[in-house]
Amino acid sequence: MIDPATLFTIVLMAGVTYLTRIGGYVVLRNRTLSARATAVMEAAPGCVLISVIAPDFVSKNPADLAALAITVLAATRLPMLPTVLIGVGAAGLLRHFMA
Amino acid sequence: MSISQATLSQEAGDRSGSEFRRGIMSCTPVLLGTIPYALVLGAQATQKGLRVVELSAMTGLNFAGGSEFAAIQLWTSPPHILLIVAITFLVNSRHLLMGAALAPFLRHLPRRKVFPALFFMCDESWALGLADARQRASDGIGPAFSLRYYMGAALAMYLAWVAFTTLGAMLGPVLGNVEPYGFDMAFPAVFLVLMRGMWKGFAAARPWLVSLVVAALVYLFVPGAWYVAAGALSGLIAAYVLAGDA
């Protein structure tokens, strides 16, 4: 069975996401957005994603910081799967050998 | 041949079915690329205590990967509903721009077709649909936007996303707690690759740096999950202010 609080959260997530999908078509289609509004909307996803993983950047474990640096480097030049494998591999190995 | 395919080919000859197939074929390369992170999302969701059916409901109803990764990362039991919903909105706010960009090509379609079609709009199906519409417009094919091509790409993405996140959730408990092996680094890895895809140069990325610094400081000095809201909001303010000198 589904937990009620979980279901409620999921339904609300789905609702706001659907609003973003139809909102541009319904509300913005006959308007020109200001450069500022466009800049804010384009920056938003990245701002949220980097905020969510910000704690990893201030980890007190040197092995984790080193692994994160390797992952950042991999993410700038490799596709999804190799980046994930390198990140996970680096974190596992560095935690093992730097502990 | 299914009933719906048979009806379609009666209505519009062989072209509609081939348009649908053309959409599926175009999205196959990107679809294959999403499989690894669908599996990672599913597996991580079960580590956070979500049941398989709950994860399937999330990916099936919400169908927006970035926001689902953020939600799972922030998931607690019981969940911080307001935080997760607000973050979902912010991560998916780019859909507003995407829908606005697509709108001129949707004028020939009735709303009863547009509203369901937009439910399936993801980064990939939007990009393919828009690029195809521009191509057909320059080739003089009308209407420029092929709904069946778009739906082929969108439905293939949808089915693959829900199926592989669910598979990941079923495999999660088999893997057990994999944190000591560095599995948690999969999240920053996925996020960073997503951000690389949004990269438009250093100037455009300055708000991200503001978000990172503020979120990190708030995380260090304020208990709870406030760091996400503080980081995201300060980044948006920075984007607003910095846009002035562009």
UniProtKB/TrEMBL annotation, chain A:
UniProt entry keywords in alphabetical sequence: Membrane, Transmembrane, Transmembrane helix
This protein's record includes keyword Transmembrane helix: yes
Protein name: AzlD family protein
InterPro entries listed in its UniProt record: Brnchd-chn_aa_trnsp_AzlD (IPR008407)
Organism expressing this protein natively: Mesorhizobium shangrilense
Transmembrane domains' residue ranges: 6-28, 35-54, 66-94
Automatic annotation (TrEMBL), chain B:
Superkingdom in the source lineage: Bacteria
Presence of the UniProt keyword Cytoplasm in the record: no
Subcellular location(s) of the protein: Cell membrane
Membrane-crossing segments per the record: 23-43, 155-175, 181-199, 211-243
InterPro entries: Brnchd-chn_aa_trnsp_permease (IPR011606)
PANTHER family per UniProt: INNER MEMBRANE PROTEIN YGAZ
Name listed for the protein in its UniProt record: AzlC family ABC transporter permease
